[in-house]
What we know:
single chain, about 400 residues, alpha/beta, 2 domains, 12 helices, 7 strands, about 10% strand, DUF7924 domain-containing protein, DUF7924
Amino acid sequence: MDGTRSRETYSLYENPLTFEQSSHGESLLNWLESVKPYGLRRCRSETNIQLLPDFCANRAFPDTDITPSLDQGTCYTDYHVAGVSRSDGSDSSSEVQQKAAHSNFRPMLFSNGIDMVESGEMVPSNIQSVVDFITSECGQPLNVGKSALEQDSKKCENMAIKGAYSYEVKDFFYRYLFSSQSLPDNIRGNETTMKRDDVPIAPSWGAGSAISTPDPDLLLGYDTWSFPITQIGHLYRWDINNTKFSFLSVDYQGDHTCNTSRLWVATNHCMVATATCVQIMKKLRAAVLERGNAEDVEVASSLDLHVFGLVTNGTEARLFVTYPDESEDSHIKFHVKLIRGFLLYDIQHRADLKRCVEKIFEWAEERRGHIMVAIDVILSRILAPRKKRKRRRGE
């Protein structure tokens, strides 16, 4: 009996098909297919089949008062994580991951007017200027203590050598770049699914497009209360997302033996998310240009439509800029340009990445001022008839 059982067990490893062909195996497979996949997840980039070690549940973030929550299946940080409803027809996180990993996803992006700029291709002068500004302080050392520098270096070297889960990559980046102490007062970071209505889908694809609804691991934009009180009630006209006029999309991917994610998938996520952010800015500019007078054209031209994307797997990080194509006869409506890559285990590369993100925050503050001016122009046009009616009633 025992010998028979041993031979059967050996045959399962020697020929896996034997298990699938047996009646017991078929019953088990049918049952597995009937149940929904389940797995604790700390980051939307993780696959459902990846079970995380128990120690993560009790791991606290030293620079925050928040402890990862097992109840929600997500590692919360000091960011407000908005509740996301899937009732609007948006894709689930697993569906987003599956679509972005498909070999036809890039051609589908191209069909929808989103394309990657190849090396050596010329970019518009205004885009090159902002790239030069973002990278202007690269090469300079960071003013940080030796112990902190050594701790970061050790962490990054271990992620490069041993690999890392997505939640570990996310943990490091929150501490290193996106902690509440690092973000300017007017900037907000959210883990949220963007609204499907803003996704730039070509008419030929329609509502059934295979382009996934953007679900970035971190979306950085402006806090609602960073705008004047007279504008807050009208922001929904152009951006109904919780983070307003977002300018930086971040996607984390693990690089581990149990993880099938990769930077190519993260870049696909980034391309859709940043194109959606650009689409929102184009909507605002179109509202400014509705009258078409010279003053409005000047205000519209001051709006920065381009946004940035950051993808990483814990070993390498890549920074992109996405900008619109203004040619009316061009099929491509959104271009995604690689600014540069960063090896995180290299001290200078890591310092350069931090400098670039800080310069993006600096640029974003000036951008917010232009957005507020544009909204004032639009609201003055909307509210003018109401003021006239009130005056007539007063007379």
